[in-house]
Specification:
This protein has helices at residues 52-60, 63-68, 74-87; strands spanning 7-9, 16-18, 22-27, 33-36, 44-49. By secondary structure, it is an alpha+beta fold. The mean pLDDT is 89. It holds the Pfam family YlxR.
């Protein structure tokens, strides 16, 4: 029997994609927001495509803020954008 692929929704484009293709953004217990490349860190997670367009959309629609249930400061978005560009 084929193993079921875990699917997650991108907070930018709202498309369902396999979890492995998406980046996880987490909010830790301390309220720190960061990219979780391993997908294993503890914290509330939101998923986003590995495209800067999706991050821009998520910032515009406040998709990340809704998923993580927290107000996200501008410098955090800048850091995420930079980290994403490094990965591309």
């Amino acid at each position: 029997m084929a193993k079921k692929l875990p699917m997650r929704q991108c907070v930018g484009c709202n498309e369902m994609k396999p979890k492995k293709e998406l980046l996880r953004v987490i909010k830790t217990q301390e309220g720190e927001i960061s990219l979780d490349a391993t997908g294993k860190k503890n914290g509330r997670g939101a998923y986003i495509c590995k495209a800067s367009d999706c991050l821009k959309k998520a910032i515009k629609t406040k998709g990340l803020e809704r998923s993580l249930k927290v107000q996200i400061p501008e410098e955090v978005y800048e850091k995420l954008t930079k980290e994403l560009e490094d990965l591309e």
